[in-house]
Design brief:
Length: 370
Amino acid sequence: FFVVLVVLILFSCAFSIHANTLSSTESLTISRNLTIVSPGKIFELGFFKPSTRPRWYLGIWYKKIPERTYVWVANRDTPLSNSVGTLKISDGNLVILDHSNIPIWSTNTKGDVRSPIVAELLDTGNLVIRYFNNNSQEFLWQSFDFPTDTLLPEMKLGWDRKTGLNRFLRSYKSSNDPTSGSFSYKLETGVYSEFFMLAKNSPVYRTGPWNGIQFIGMPEMRKSDYVIYNFTENNEEVSFTFLMTSQNTYSRLKLSDKGEFERFTWIPTSSQWSLSWSSPKDQCDVYDLCGPYSYCDINTSPICHCIQGFEPKFPEWKLIDAAGGCVRRTPLNCGKDRFLPLKQMKLPDTKTVIVDRKIGMKECKKRCLT
């Protein structure tokens, strides 16, 4: 009876990690193919191999969606080279060990190692570490602070001004290779904060600043029946997030390996992800395509034009290269020159502007003329 009881207990422990927590006495291994599932069975955490190459990763994907869609990867730049790997709690951290029990990834938290901790997968898709006896929202670590290529509802992009943490997206190297790719999507803070898409370290697209409803260069980010966009800027944070008004609707934002920022929504009737919108939208969305003092019109040929009072810097501009932009036809004359409104424009890059919110349009014009 004693032997049978011990065997049953061991068998139960070996296959019990289907709850949403991982304790310090439990572990996940590739060979046993165990996973952690969020309470509402929306997300699942486990090891996966995205291609035929012998590279294993720890990641999170949708549990309820038949098409395996990964939303977060822990060891994207340090994959396991064979089918031997373990996820466990050690010294107050989540760690991934390779076949030689050498850590290849860790959460690197600095909690009180004397207090027992657990790792927990929430229905938001957030993997958190907390003290065992504390069910509050005070986490020692959370995966939402370290995004991969996907932004989920309630997940933030931007700066935590208290800790200096910058949350941003980094694309995959290719569609089935989670290694850090060439593109990143980062919030640049200034007088008016806006998102920049970078190819390596060079800007290729920007959203324009937030106008209270959307980023002005993203008209596709209009109001929706099931999505609420939110931009917060105060002493504690500068961040962007979105919320879903329907719990049964799954939607995500993704930075693709081709450098496209995309919104996908799951359509249950067709069992596939539907692309709601994508940016950059067209060639005119490319950063600094036409150069200074110019504007871009996708419906004309050529698409680059000088604003009124300016002409191409180089005579061959319209035929060959627009990057030189435009220059004044006549020297600046502060006594006679006047301001003209430019409609349907994305506001210029505001990283170097000076803003005085106390003055009106008349005083602003006066200062600019000086």
